[in-house]
Amino acid sequence: MIKIDLDLVMVKRRMKLIELSEKIGITPSNLSNLKNGKHKSIRFELLDQLCNNLQCLPSDILVFVKEDSDDVTTKL
Predict the structure, then answer these.
(1) pLDDT by residue for the chain (76 residues), tens digit each?
(2) CATH class of segment(s) 2-75
(3) Half-sphere exposure of 1 (CA within 13 A, CB side)
(4) Do residues 43 and 57 make contact, with C-beta atoms less than 8 angstroms apart?
(5) What is the pLDDT of residue 70?
(6) Which residues contact 26 (CB under 8 A, 6 or more apart)?
(7) Where exactly are the structural domains of the chain?
(8) CA distances from 31 to 4, 12, 28, 59 (A)
(9) What's the pTM value of the predicted model, to 2 decimals?
(10) CA distance linking residue 65 with residue 23, whole number of Å
(11) CA 12 to mean position of chain CA atoms
């Protein structure tokens, strides 16, 4: 599973959630949901805006987390 991890990059850039949401044009609650893993997908346009405003690469905020085989079985 691929997850979005904005926390470390935002801390390094000293950027608050509200500031970033204003820069990329989404509501703070939508950015918070994205940050907390409540969204299942992300548009490339939004990923591009995040990377531009945080001055990072997609690999800095996208993280691959291997699912346990038990979790996969229970989802089927």
Answers:
(1) 899 999 999 999 999 999 999 999 999 999 999 999 998 899 999 999 999 999 999 999 999 988 876 655 444 4
(2) mainly alpha
(3) 13
(4) no
(5) 60
(6) 46
(7) 2-75
(8) 11, 18, 5, 18
(9) 0.82
(10) 28
(11) 15
